[in-house]
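step 3/5: co-fold with fe (ii) ion
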Amino acid sequence: MAVTAPSPASPFAPGNDAAYARWRDRKLAQRARTPADLVVEVRDPRELSAAERDEIVRRCRRDNMAIYASRVTDEDKAVPRRLGAQLGLATLDTNFLADEDGITSIAVSGAKAGAGFIPYTTHRIRWHTDGYYNPPGLRIRAMLLHCVRDAASGGDTALLDHEIAYILLRDDDPGHAAALMQADALSIPARVDDEGVARPEAVGPVFSIEPGTGDLHMRYTARTRSVAWKDDGPTAAAAARLLQILDGESGCVLRTRLLPGMGLVCNNVLHERSAFQDAPGRERLLYRARYVERIAGTERAWE
Ligand SMILES: [Fe+2]
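step 4/5: write tokens
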């Protein structure tokens, strides 16, 4: 598989130590310390004011994510669709479980839950980035979640900026970052994915550098079944360290709960969902949209 040469100035390029050190120090100094640092109050995500949009994009440049808080709790998929459009997100990754407009309702109901596809059950969803089973040519660069109703209990969201994960790994051992940039680091065998879609085998890197902009992309799942890591020492060590970071006490994981009217806007950062319980009249419903584009205005934030 061809690996595109990274932008020579990108701090993510292995061996680019001076650029990395400069970017790293600034990133760690500025990063969100608490979920509250990510939150932007908005009147209506379907019609952001220029100031609301600027605040969202500013956080996405800094942390690759923002959380908006609104009072809009209608069952209206125009919320994620119109929000996405205002952030330069146009190309939805559609699958057959998404409704016709390409925006997926994540809830425990219907055949998908009955068939045991994890997002549609009450189970925990372990750390991942969206679309890790997509072919390398179909990267998911941005993802939106909008909460219509939260669960009666649980259903919390844990978040980690994938650039911070990269820093923690590279600081621990530059070999970890290099191992996870190998073009055959992580293979997902041909299978029916978590959402019931038949997929061909997908072989690719965990970390990759976007041609042109030098931005970092991450493709990851913490699942252990139906996943094949490259069978060498450096890859195994890096994968083990990454899981330790995600489940450990780095102090960089942000844990929160999306309440009705709130949502996550992100450049497909690492995320995890805890198990939850519904109650009659209190059935969790989130809308999810996945996009090929990155959030407009967040390119080359490393410069
Ligand atoms: Fe996800």
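step 5/5: annotate
Residues 233-247 form the longest helix (15 residues).
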